[in-house]
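Tutorial handout. Part one gives the primary structure; part two gives the three-dimensional structure as tokens.
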Amino acid sequence: MFRYSESNQEYRRRDAKNVAYSNEQWAECKRKCRLNNEDIALAKRLGLNPRSLIKNIPGKNEPWKAPVKDWLSEIEAKRKK
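Part two.
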């Protein structure tokens, strides 16, 4: 059984706020992935979230992984086919 200490209205507000990603998260993603505003807009159009972009940054031990910018363009090209 779940019990919430906060009112139902406050819980809904907080839950709805977590659905969308904040501008701070997108700014962090932009900085870490070295993306520009067009790339961020493309990621949003493709339905990606900032965490997935950050997760796909290639590491030093992953030479086969493309940079996030190239990865985004590959996804867009596949979806346009």
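Part three, for discussion. The chain is about 65% helix and 0% strand. The first helix runs from residue 8 to 19.
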